[in-house]
Specification:
heterodimer, A: mainly alpha, globular, B: mainly alpha, 8 helices, 64% helix, elongated, Cro/C1-type_HTH (chain B), Helix-turn-helix transcriptional regulator (chain B)
């Protein structure tokens, strides 16, 4: 490894450790099942997510 | 080994993006935009001969038009190995991509900020939504 200084981007949602454990679990699970492909937000996927959460 | 990073996710992503952008900009233009003095550097990254210099991740992500957090995650794996990359992200926090921030916003919105648990049923449904 070189000794380059680097910065990890944070987000408007705040640093990772400010996400709840449940939120971290959702995001990490999406990463795993999408094989790290960083899936885009599509209306079809949002509808499916809404249906899932509305079902309780 | 001559190409120690051959077929890593980082090398594949760079090769794919250079190909996808080829109708708009040349590989030399991408290399220049990313701040590489030598245009051959991009060929070396694509073939896995070299790893992505971490200080070039922001400019390279911009030139390749990919999310910098996503490229940073891949580049970290390449730079220090999966185990050390995992330790680094545990200490500093994992970089979230724009898409992930979007999913987080959707999750909060749809659940009325109820912080839903990831249940077995949720996992099954998510596999159907995002799985390949």
């Amino acid at each position: 490894m070189d000794d380059t200084v680097f910065t990890i981007p944070t987000s408007p949602a705040g640093p990772w450790d400010q996400l709840t454990a449940n939120e971290q679990a959702w995001i990490e699970f999406i990463r795993v099942i999408s094989c790290g492909s960083d899936p885009k937000i599509t209306p079809k996927r949002v509808r499916a997510l809404t249906a899932l959460l509305d079902a309780g | 080994m001559t190409n120690p990073f051959q077929n890593t996710a980082t090398a594949r992503l760079i090769a794919d993006r250079v190909r996808d952008l080829s109708h708009r900009k040349t590989q030399a233009e991408i290399a220049s935009e990313a701040g590489f003095a030598n245009a051959n550097m991009l060929s070396m990254l694509k073939s896995g001969k070299n790893k992505v210099p971490l200080d070039r991740v922001p400019s390279l992500a911009k030139a390749l038009e990919v999310d910098p957090a996503y490229l940073m995650r891949l580049a970290l794996d390449q730079a220090v190995g999966a185990t050390a990359a995992k330790a680094i992200t545990e200490i500093f926090g994992t970089p979230a991509t724009e898409n992930e921030r979007g999913w987080l916003a959707e999750l909060r919105d749809v659940s009325d900020n109820s912080d839903p648990r990831l249940t077995a049923r949720s996992r099954t449904a998510l596999r159907a939504i995002f799985g390949k």
